[in-house]
Amino acid sequence: MQSCEIAIVGSGFAGSLLARVLAVLGYDVVLLERGTHPRFAIGESSTPLANLSLERLGLRYGLVDCYHLATHGRWLAHFPELRRGLKRGFTFYRHHPDQPFENRGLDSERLLVAASPDNSLSDTHWLRADLDHHFVRQAVAAGVDYRDCVDILSADVASDSVHLSVSRNGTAFELRANFLIDASGPGGFLARQLSLTSGLEHTETRSAIVFSHFSGVRLMNDVAPGMPEGPYPDDWSAVHHLIDEGWMYSLRFDDGVTSAGFLLTPQGATALNSSGAADAEALWRALVQRYPTIASAFAEATPLMPIAFQPAIQHRLTRAAGERWALMPHAYAFVDPLFSTGIAWSLRAVERLALAFESTAHHRRVPDSDVLTRYNAALDAEADQIDHVVAGAYEAMTHFDLFAAHAMLYFVTVSFAEVSQRLAPEESVAWNGFLGIGDPVLDPLPRESLRRLRHITRRRGDIGTSDDRRGFAEWVTHAIAPRNIAGLAQPERRNLYPVDFDALIERHALLGMSRLRLLAALPALRGMAPEPPFAYQSVGGRATSLRDRPAPARGRPAPR
Fold it and tell me: Which residues are bridge partners to 173 per DSSP?
């Protein structure tokens, strides 16, 4: 029987990064992958909070590439061969059936929220085939035993170890590990092996997806010209087209490829299927043709892979960790790509588990039960929070004013977290609640917003009265005020929100900082601080700690 200290199943970016960090910490890690790299994956839109996690991982564990991949400018300078897209913020349009998008100037049904002050500090869309493959190669270089083309036949989790029965290219072998991490995604093997029950019935969001990558997609500024200038070019962002049946994402990569997909409510999917859109391509055509401006943007677009359809994308389990095992967020729960929470949440979990193993590296070498209980509780609360934020957005899509107001909850929450983390970094920040969990102001707002929206819409798409909608917007503005450091929810902005350092300075007290202290810290937000030193170094081609915790000195086969 073969053995290792930690077995990780699934070599997407989260599994590979965690494997690499644990190897740097001196653990003997085996990374198991059912397929091969490079391979297609969706979940491509990064955010400032994701970039902060990448930076922290890079600085703490000497993963210099992670630090450089955390902004579009550093990515281009150091890894131009890895494909990516410029993401300056979040763009939203409301479309109506059989009508072109109406340019009503500053009164258009259009919302832009900047996430960075310029291109160099921008977020990125990740071409996952390139980035996941890169992280696997880096894991191998750090000493991780990577094995692809693997089928896991069974897993026996005992009190002192985990036994895996594995088949690779038809050859069976047994693997014993001290700890097992499932990073394989929805419907992962560990949920089946441990008979983990589903918690999906307690969640609110339901959607289907039809998607692909495309060439030849036109810019919105070309098909709907003359719109008032926003804080960044509309298309260099995560573009969201809100439609009657749900919404569409459009993520443009720098090489001209566009990742696009429709997320459909159950009612929207049923209506389209009843109209004769019986397969993925027909469903795509029916949706595109129903909205003239989207149809213009995709008139000459060519899918680069078969258009795919998944009738249900949500999943949720009731446990995320046990004595000898843990699930990464995507294996535990998934809600919807709206607001791009997936990458940031996964990277936060990488940080948490890395810290858990770091703290026990010289002792029992598996996380203590109280740490795993804390991890389980964090993912449980955060999955609920993401669900309520997204469910509220779906509830509000029937009227753009409602949607724009509800979206402010998300943007205030993440902007407050980002600035707080940049100005007052702490080692324990990874354990801070994601998306406002644990914050006495922000934590209850998504659930309350969903309740208020359902009172207006009656859960059947009603838009309510003008007084209802105005009252909801006023409630949001008041509720977020104690954390609104970014100057959001201001009618005079007309739904065009830049990164506003003046508003931040003016609202310094909301961060518990004096004006002078905040001014002194601004270079950290403007990207003017020098590149910091790294806590770990690469010695002789192997990542090692400055505290002399060598990674396993073993040769590894390169991933294909």
Answer: 166
Q: Whole-model pTM? A: 0.94
pLDDT at 534: 67
Q: Assign domain 1-74+127-200+317-367+532-560 to its CATH architecture.
A: 3-Layer(bba) Sandwich (3.50)
Where does 386-457 show beta strands of DSSP type E? none
Give the start-to-end residue ranges of the domains of the chain.
1-74+127-200+317-367+532-560, 105-113+206-310, 391-529
| CA distances, 137 to each of 129, 320, 422, 451, 516 (Å) | 12, 28, 30, 47, 45
**According to the model, what pLDDT value does residue 537 have?**
45
What's the CATH architecture for 105-113+206-310?
2-Layer Sandwich (3.30)
Q: Which pLDDT value is given to residue 276? A: 63
Give residue 508's identity as a one-letter amino acid code: H
- Strand 536-539 and strand 542-545: the pairing is antiparallel
d(CA 22, CA 145): 12
Q: Please, are residues 67 and 138 in contact by the beta-carbon 8 Å criterion? A: no
Separation between Cα atoms, residue 140 and residue 204, nearest integer Å: 40
The residues with which 30 forms a beta bridge, in sequence order, are 7, 145
CB 178 within 8 A of CB 6: yes
Contact, 331 vs 186, CB < 8 A? yes
Structural Rg of the chain based on CA atoms: 23
Contact 3, 176 (CB under 8 A): yes
User: Comparing 1-74+127-200+317-367+532-560 with 105-113+206-310, is the CATH topology the same?
Assistant: no
Nearest to 185 by CA among 333, 63, 64, 322: 333
Instruction: For residue 411, give the H/E element and its range.
Output: helix 400-423
Q: Which residues of the chain have pLDDT under 70?
A: 275-278, 361, 528-530, 534-560
Amino acid 523: pLDDT: 85
The pLDDT, as a whole number, for residue 535 is 58
Q: What is the pLDDT of residue 475?
A: 98
Specify the pLDDT at position 452: 98
